[in-house]
Amino acid sequence: MSSQKKRNFQIEAFKHRVVVDPKYAEKTWKILEHAIHEIYNHNASGLSFEELYSVQCACVNVKLYSVVCYILFRVLGFLNRNKEIKVGHKQAKRNAYNMVLHKFGEKLYSGLVSTMTSHLKEIALSIEASQGDLFLEELDRKWTEHNKALQMIRDILMYMDRTFIPSTHRTPVHELGLNLWRDNIVHTVKIQLRLKDTLLELVQKERGGEVINRGLMRNIVKMLMDLGSSVYQEDFEKPFLVVSADFYRGESQLFIESCDCGNYLKKAEKRLNEEIERVAHYLDARSEVKITNVVEREMIESQMTRLVQMENSGLVNMLVDDKYDDLGRMYNLFRRVPNGLTSIRDVMTVHLRETGRHLVSDGERLKDPVDFVQRLLDIKDKHDKIINLAFNNDKMFQNALNSSFEYFINLNTRSPEFISLFVDDKLRKGLKGVSEEDVEIVLDKVMMLFRYLQEKDVFEKYYKQHLAKRLLSAKSVSEDAERSLILKLKTECGYQFTSKLEGMFTDMKTSDDTMQGFYAAMGHELGDGPTLGVHVLTTGSWPTQSTTTCNLPPEILLLQTSSKHITWGHTVDADGLSYREVEQATEIPTSDLKRCLQSLACAKGKNVLRKEPMSKDIGEDNRIFFNKFSSKFYKVKIGTVVAPKESEPEKQETRQRVEEDRKPQIEAAIVRIMKARRVLDHNNIVAEVTKQLQTRFLPNPVVIKKRIESLIGDGKFLERERTI
Amino acid sequence: MKKEDTVKLISSEGFEFVIDKNAAMVSQTIRNMLTSPGGFAETERNEVTFPEISTTILEKICQYFYWSLQYASGKETEFYIEPELTLELMMAANYLHT
């Protein structure tokens, strides 16, 4: 710094009084004390803020001088380059000032405490003296006044708040005021109990349906909160929760004895909403969780099992009667308590499984597969709707529903066959005249059931058979629907699953083309002769049960092949033939022949054949005649008896075939896995195979074991690790 | 300018400065004086006497109030303080809590 500037720098003496006189402190305190009294007596308008402020400022601001001195000395010391003097001087002065500072500040602070305390004691007396209902009002009024006064005092003493308090780590003025209020008013013996009781009594009155002064309640509760969350919790919240718990425990007992499940839930919901509303109106928002917990615990959790299993009105009845509202209410309430939903789910699962098992094991139902599947779909629809409307589409319930279905559908080993029959029925006639969207819906539902099946390959087997019959007898309602279903199966189970089914369609197409080619070339030669239908089928793609022999009589009139049966028409002499003769001549297996004859001879009004005696079934000793008639306009449509359910031996046969088919699949899976893993222990192989084949069927571990053994033994595909 | 929007600051020598309330409120102390509930004498008369602040300093302070408002609104200019005023200004600032 240049010497020029140094000369210009002047320091003037302080104009302020530097007061070290204790009397002065005394005097200034008197002024402030007077002011505080005036404030409490609502007489503040005569006071000058500036005066009060500067007085306490002078009382405290000695510190400022020390700061200023410090800066001055720094500056001077820098200018004079005389550091030793500076340090010594500064230290001495500062200590002196600090002493003064603390003495005065201390005085001011303790004076403030004692003055406020004495005022609050008076207030406490007047509150205690208030009678009955006026108690809360008085308390509220005094609290408002105190708050106002406190704010004014804080404003006046702002300087102390800013300098003295932080440096000595004391409670700031505002907080001090609140603490004093707490200790002198709220926590005095007489007021504390009375306040708690009054508040709880009011809440109880409101629960009883009376109207209470909510504004007042809010103010008082707000006061407790302002005094610190611990005050609120200790003085109000805890006893409040205890009392509430008692109340609701009693009430839930009362209700559960007198109401049915639906009504009880309604009441519980109403109580819960009331409590939430109460919290919103005059309690701390943080109490909401606590009080709702109390209600949930007492009203719902403790009665949960009883509610769910209540006779005539419990969960099962709600499910049966489609009570969406009640179910929704139950869901919403139970969701709040731990294990609530699980208990609903468990009961629902048990109920579903019971219903399902009842359905699938009911002998009557099993006679009509279409009806059976339709019932399954109805149950599924019903519960889907419940879950959708009442249970908020909760994943947990959907899973429960799915697992229940999976459980009971697979209880019945014929489910795959029935589902296939259902599809067969729908595609033959059920979907006639139905719009495309509806067809899709039906097919989607079927797919849903299909997903539950464990033995998908059995379904495939049956489906293939039924599809073959539909295709060969041209009974399918819509090819689009057929293809769409196959597409769905494909997305569900992959290309493998449907490749053969698709092959069947290709065959049909090729055969049609061939036939058309044949008629185009030969049509004029045939003239009026009977039409011939031939289908060329790829071995492997089609069901393989059709290798029955069939001797075609030379005098064939009409021939219609399907993979399996021949609709048999014949010039029979007037004498007729016995059943045995027919059988010998055609060498058609008994069951097929009987069915064909039945459709030819027994359908009313369409008898191409006549038999004796007239009866519904074909007996071995029947004689069969050709029913002679001729008409150019009359077209006889011969319906074969609809693909019936399989009889018991056929079923066994199919099952056996399925088992046979599974063997190579299991072997293939094992080899695939072993190629990837090289070495694997037995349990893991079984697990992996099960996992791989899950989409098609559930392999039996014993079978897997046998397959592994055969792979080790015959083909030397695998070998045991020698060390073991 | 309306009467309600201004406030009168009086120095130790009796000089009166009439300034915007907004500007005066830059000082926490003055803000408290004017907004404290219960009606102190200052609030009612709308004037504040500072027996400890000289005219020169108070003038500087008023200038500072306006400068501070400008500065807060994004206009960055220098606020020049004469060296001989520094000390007293500091004390006044401490007092006024600006």
UniProtKB/TrEMBL annotation, chain A:
<dbReference type="InterPro" id="IPR019559">
    <property type="entry name" value="Cullin_neddylation_domain"/>
</dbReference>
<dbReference type="InterPro" id="IPR036317">
    <property type="entry name" value="Cullin_homology_sf"/>
</dbReference>
<dbReference type="InterPro" id="IPR036388">
    <property type="entry name" value="WH-like_DNA-bd_sf"/>
</dbReference>
<feature type="domain" description="Cullin family profile">
    <location>
        <begin position="414"/>
        <end position="556"/>
    </location>
</feature>
<dbReference type="Pfam" id="PF10557">
    <property type="entry name" value="Cullin_Nedd8"/>
</dbReference>
<dbReference type="Pfam" id="PF00888">
    <property type="entry name" value="Cullin"/>
</dbReference>
<comment type="similarity">
    <text>Belongs to the cullin family.</text>
</comment>
<dbReference type="InterPro" id="IPR059120">
    <property type="entry name" value="Cullin-like_AB"/>
</dbReference>
<dbReference type="InterPro" id="IPR016158">
    <property type="entry name" value="Cullin_homology"/>
</dbReference>
<dbReference type="InterPro" id="IPR016159">
    <property type="entry name" value="Cullin_repeat-like_dom_sf"/>
</dbReference>
<dbReference type="Pfam" id="PF26557">
    <property type="entry name" value="Cullin_AB"/>
</dbReference>
<dbReference type="InterPro" id="IPR001373">
    <property type="entry name" value="Cullin_N"/>
</dbReference>
<protein>
    <submittedName>
        <fullName>Cullin 3</fullName>
    </submittedName>
</protein>
<dbReference type="InterPro" id="IPR036390">
    <property type="entry name" value="WH_DNA-bd_sf"/>
</dbReference>
<dbReference type="InterPro" id="IPR045093">
    <property type="entry name" value="Cullin"/>
</dbReference>
Automatic annotation (TrEMBL), chain B:
<dbReference type="GO" id="GO:0003746">
    <property type="term" value="F:translation elongation factor activity"/>
</dbReference>
<dbReference type="InterPro" id="IPR039948">
    <property type="entry name" value="ELC1"/>
</dbReference>
<dbReference type="InterPro" id="IPR001232">
    <property type="entry name" value="SKP1-like"/>
</dbReference>
<keyword id="KW-0539">Nucleus</keyword>
<protein>
    <recommendedName>
        <fullName>Elongin-C</fullName>
    </recommendedName>
</protein>
<feature type="domain" description="SKP1 component POZ">
    <location>
        <begin position="6"/>
        <end position="66"/>
    </location>
</feature>
<comment type="similarity">
    <text>Belongs to the SKP1 family.</text>
</comment>
<dbReference type="InterPro" id="IPR011333">
    <property type="entry name" value="SKP1/BTB/POZ_sf"/>
</dbReference>
<keyword id="KW-0251">Elongation factor</keyword>
<keyword id="KW-0648">Protein biosynthesis</keyword>
<comment type="pathway">
    <text>Protein modification; protein ubiquitination.</text>
</comment>
<dbReference type="InterPro" id="IPR016073">
    <property type="entry name" value="Skp1_comp_POZ"/>
</dbReference>
<dbReference type="Pfam" id="PF03931">
    <property type="entry name" value="Skp1_POZ"/>
</dbReference>
